[in-house]
Every structure is written in C-alpha cells, then in structure tokens.
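Moderator note: this is an archived Q&A kept for reference. The question asked for a predicted structure of one protein chain; the sequence and the answer are reproduced below.
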Amino acid sequence: MIELQRKLLGDSLRNQAFYDALKASLKPGMEVLDLGSGTGFLAFLASKLGAKHVTCVEVGDIIKISKQLANRNNVRNCTFLHAHSTELKVAEVPKADILVSETLGNYALEENIIECVEDAKRFLKSTAVIIPGKIWQYVCPITSDRLYQEIDTFNVGFDLRFDEARTVAMQNMFVRTIRPEDLLTGSQAVKLWDTVDFSQKNASVRRATPHWKTDTPCTVYGFALWWKSELVKGVQISTSPMDPATHWEQIYLPVSQPLVLPPDSTLSLHLVSDTRWQVKMDLTWHAKVMDASGKVIAEQEMDMKKGHLN
C-alpha cells in the first residue's frame, strides 16, 4: 500500500491536475468528500483551498498515516472514516458540494470507481461537482511482437510442454509501458470504446465492438487499452502512450496466437467489462478477422475469469 501511495505522491502530472480541478471547483465554505482518501493528499489540498470541512473515507490502514500527516500539516478540518464508503449510512457523512475520488487504475475501472461513485451520490447535494467528471476508454491493435514475446515464455525446452499453463496465463490483462511504435498506425487506428459520465447513472457492465479495416497486410499481437479523464471542464489527464507519462501505465490484452490480417480484411474486437461488486473485475475480449467477402478467417476469445487458478 505505501509503495502505491509513494507512486501517487511522486506523480506531478496527476497531482497538478487534481489541484487544478479542485481549485476550479471549490469555493470557500464548501463541504468536500474524498472517497478512497489514501494519504489524504487531495483532502489536504481541498482544505488549503478553502473547504469548510473534508470527510476522508478510506478502507485501508493508510488512514492511520493520513491522520498523522494532517497533524503535521496543520490541517484541522478533516474527519477520517476508516470504512468502505458503501458501509456508511447517509447520516454519517455531511452532504457534500464536491466529491473527489482518485480511484483510477491502470485499467480505468479496476478499482470499482463506477460502483463507488454511484453509491456515494447519496452523500451529495443536488448541485455537487464530481471529480473526475468523465472517463473515456480507448483501444488500439498492437502490431509489434515486443510485448507478445515478453509474456509468451512457455517454450522452456527440455522436451517439456506447458500448453495448459500458457492458456491460463494469456487470458489476463498485463500492465505494461506501451510505446507509440507498438501500435497500428493510421488516423483510424485508435478507437474510443467507452465513455463514463458521472453526471449520469453508469452501468457496471460495459460493452463495445470496434472495427478496423486494413488496406495492407499486418499481424496483430494483441490490443492496447488506455484512458483519458476530464476531471472538470478544462482539466484533463491521460494515460495514452502518446501523452506525457504518469505513474499509470497502459494495459496489454494479448491474443493466444498472432492474428494475420490480409489486405482488405476487417478486424473486430468485442469488449465486455464487468465490475459489479460480486464480480470485482472481469474483462473479456473476442477478436475476429474477416476477409473482403465477410468470411471469418480467424477468431479468438479471451476471458480474465479463465486466467486465474481456483
């Protein structure tokens, strides 16, 4: 936990973006709710920017450190609740003018930000600002074999085969630093596949099927995922490989075997993200290659549920 917090505190782009978002939204005397408050960094910023009071909700033991840090920084207007926000009753949390929650993962939704924020709306005034306000998720095919070779390490030799272990391992998302040169090129290569808008109600199960048409042959070794977030209007942060690096990295979704795309073919990818509480986190990706006539010439389906040992 402390290593994660160290990374967060060392991410100057992330820190500045959330400071700018709070500064743009917060008026003196406002009530703030910090969901998943960690060390208390965002709560302390809100306090220094003029918040009347900040409620810090944190389920982890890091909350003990955050109390000490509040004293060290002479922050006196924070209340610390050591619990998961879903366990709290409405009467325990003052109605907030601002909800701030930096519960964004390398895969944007992996920390259940949708479920946490949707539940926490009961603690908010009708005019409340939610930070982040929006999340956009992007996907792009990977045409470099670099990451594929890095994780496909099951040809160990010694006249031994590890096919079943490989099958399990390849059905996982991998946190990796993806480079622009790893990606399919062209103006239509990057696809927006999901939008979360916290001013609306958001479902836990997200689906999309982006398509790519190819004029020239290529080989696809998996898919890259990243996200961009509008914290408030005019303040954004991104984990795109084309943008300045943050502590977040990108997600590599492998394929079980490279997908060979002939000229004039179409690649489709059906993505399903499920972050319901009872599921926690599951992602499936179903790739198909169709020739110019529409005939399916290659097909693979991967599922994170099959990527774990029971």
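Archived answer notes: The helical segments are 2-9, 12-25, 41-48, 62-72, 113-120, 146-151, 163-169.
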